[in-house]
């Protein structure tokens, strides 16, 4: 009997979770039993992300050993990230203006949610661009690792990798240690992924049992507009970029199908970070580019999140009958270009950043209480877009550098372990 692939296993877990959640809607025991299972799976993934990022970047950078070349890759990556996220914001604003998802929404029909806890965390999240750059340099790398501060971890790993390359022969044992660490952690990742269908079943089951499928009805137009805009962004915008560099977006989606289903159902792009790095390397992207571009993209290239934030901000303005002029929307775009940087790849963080953004542009933060109930469903879509965007970024930068080998034969027939 043919073994069911990982993508199908995760999809079955997703469908079963939705079914169980819908049957036991409003029953607190579902969350009591399933939440720990989902939490354990997410913790297993988070446990391996930092060691993989550190080891992969150190090995990749030490392999290059050239500060000038690394600076060139970094500069091109950040330029590309800024262009793509700006396009995502513009598309989000255009979709909101064209389809008017917030017009005519009956606020009384929507159940209010307490957002005080979100507001508190939003206040601590809001920071200037200067602070973002200062925070990239860790005063204590061990503390940065403990806190999971990805930008600081990337910076330290790059500096450490350059140091290993600079000392030549003496650095080889250290480099061998990190090569072994990376290989071991990728092995562990593949073993953890065997539990993905169970983790997905638990997480989606809890979500549906809490909010119910009925929660989609009053905000159905917003959900449809968000999903349609995300699909447009992937197939048209990212598809055009892929074509420009001689790649096919459908081929990329096929390669990433396991990771996309997992990221979508867990609403966390962190869950697939190790696997994306591994797959992009096997596709033909050099290790030093993959290990720099993808982790950095998790902070600077969250296309789905920025698109959603732009769309949701205009949705709230429309819901309250606030007319935002073109200059107001340009201000919103500029604010989002700053606040969207440095978002962690964990569920719900976009929601917190959106709160900080609304306060800055003078929109009522209370409006987010109306979409808090369906934020998880929207989060799933934007996470999938983030995964495609960052994977494509690795290919674009590799092609830009003339280093893409295109040897994707290793991916063919590869069993999901």
Automatic annotation (TrEMBL):
<feature type="transmembrane region" description="Helical">
    <location>
        <begin position="45"/>
        <end position="65"/>
    </location>
</feature>
<dbReference type="Pfam" id="PF00375">
    <property type="entry name" value="SDF"/>
</dbReference>
<keyword id="KW-0813">Transport</keyword>
<dbReference type="GO" id="GO:0015293">
    <property type="term" value="F:symporter activity"/>
</dbReference>
<keyword id="KW-0769">Symport</keyword>
<feature type="transmembrane region" description="Helical">
    <location>
        <begin position="150"/>
        <end position="168"/>
    </location>
</feature>
<dbReference type="InterPro" id="IPR036458">
    <property type="entry name" value="Na:dicarbo_symporter_sf"/>
</dbReference>
<feature type="transmembrane region" description="Helical">
    <location>
        <begin position="224"/>
        <end position="250"/>
    </location>
</feature>
<dbReference type="InterPro" id="IPR018107">
    <property type="entry name" value="Na-dicarboxylate_symporter_CS"/>
</dbReference>
<protein>
    <submittedName>
        <fullName>Glutamate:protein symporter</fullName>
    </submittedName>
</protein>
<feature type="transmembrane region" description="Helical">
    <location>
        <begin position="307"/>
        <end position="326"/>
    </location>
</feature>
<keyword id="KW-1133">Transmembrane helix</keyword>
<feature type="transmembrane region" description="Helical">
    <location>
        <begin position="7"/>
        <end position="25"/>
    </location>
</feature>
<feature type="transmembrane region" description="Helical">
    <location>
        <begin position="77"/>
        <end position="99"/>
    </location>
</feature>
<feature type="transmembrane region" description="Helical">
    <location>
        <begin position="346"/>
        <end position="372"/>
    </location>
</feature>
<keyword id="KW-0472">Membrane</keyword>
<dbReference type="GO" id="GO:0005886">
    <property type="term" value="C:plasma membrane"/>
</dbReference>
<dbReference type="GO" id="GO:0006835">
    <property type="term" value="P:dicarboxylic acid transport"/>
</dbReference>
<feature type="transmembrane region" description="Helical">
    <location>
        <begin position="192"/>
        <end position="212"/>
    </location>
</feature>
<keyword id="KW-1003">Cell membrane</keyword>
<dbReference type="InterPro" id="IPR001991">
    <property type="entry name" value="Na-dicarboxylate_symporter"/>
</dbReference>
<keyword id="KW-0812">Transmembrane</keyword>
